[in-house]
Amino acid sequence: MSETFRKFLRTLPDFPADLPRFDPATAARNPVELFKQWLDEALDAGEQQPHAFSLATVSAGQQPSSRMLILKNIDGDGWHFATSRTSRKGQELDIVPQAAMNFYWASLGRQVRVAGPVVQLSAEASARDWAERPRADGSTNPNWQLYAVQPTEFEFWQGSNDGGHVRHRLGPDGAPEG
Ligand SMILES: Cc1cc2nc3c(=O)[nH]c(=O)nc-3n(C[C@H](O)[C@H](O)[C@H](O)COP(=O)(O)O)c2cc1C
C-alpha cells in the first residue's frame, strides 16, 4: 500500500509548463512592492484566495504549528492577520511573539516567505476587522485580535521547470541577503 502510494505521488501534476522568469536584478527593491506585484500576478493567473498564507508559530515547548490565514493589510505596523486570542496560535503568540508566513501560488510556481516578531494592534483596529469580515452579523468579539508580523527577513522564490529555481532573500530594509 505505501509503495503504491509512493508511486501515485510521483504521478501527480508538477508545476505548469509555462512559468514566469524572475530576475532579482531587475525586480522591485522594496519587498512590499514586489509582494504586491506578485499578488496581482497571482490574481491574474486565476489563483483563488491569493491572499491566503500559512502562518507558523511555536509553543513554549518549541513545538511548531501552522495553519492557513488571510492577509488583512500591510502598512507601517507590519503584515496584518486576525484571529482569536484564545486560539492555539493566539496563546502561542502570547508566549513566543514570533511567526513565519508562507504564501504559495501554484499556478506561477512562486512562494514568498516573511518572518519576524509579531505585535498586537489596537482594540479599535481589531473590532473593525471583526465587523468587516465576510458574513459579519453585527456581533462583537472581545477575543478577536489583529496582529502584525514585523518582518526581519523575506524570501521570494520562483520555481523553474529546468531546475534553475531562483531564491531572492531580502533583509528588513529590502537589502539583498546571502
Ligand atoms: C484559506 C483559509 C483561511 C483562513 N483564514 C483564517 C483567518 O484569517 N483567521 C483565523 O482565525 N482562521 C482562519 N482560518 C482557519 C485557521 O486555518 C485555523 O483553523 C484556525 O484559526 C485555528 O487555528 P489554531 O488552532 O492553530 O489557532 C483559515 C483557514 C483557511 C483554510
From TrEMBL:
Q: Name the InterPro entries on file.
A: Pyridox_Oxase (IPR000659), Pyridox_Oxase_N (IPR011576), Split_barrel_FMN-bd (IPR012349)
Segments carrying the region annotation (Disordered) are 158-178
Cofactor(s) of this protein: FMN
Keyword terms = Flavoprotein, FMN, Oxidoreductase
How are cofactors bound according to the entry's free-text note? Binds 1 FMN per subunit.
Q: Can you give the residue ranges of the Pyridoxamine 5'-phosphate oxidase N-terminal domain?
A: 39-157
Q: Which residues bind FMN?
A: R67, M68, L69, I70, L71, K72, R88, K89, Q111
Q: Which GO terms describe its molecular function?
A: FMN binding; pyridoxamine phosphate oxidase activity
Which biological processes are named by the entry's GO terms? pyridoxine biosynthetic process
PANTHER family reported for this sequence: PYRIDOXINE-5'-PHOSPHATE OXIDASE, PYRIDOXINE-5-PHOSPHATE OXIDASE
Return the protein name: Pyridoxal 5'-phosphate synthase
Organism equals: Arthrobacter nitrophenolicus
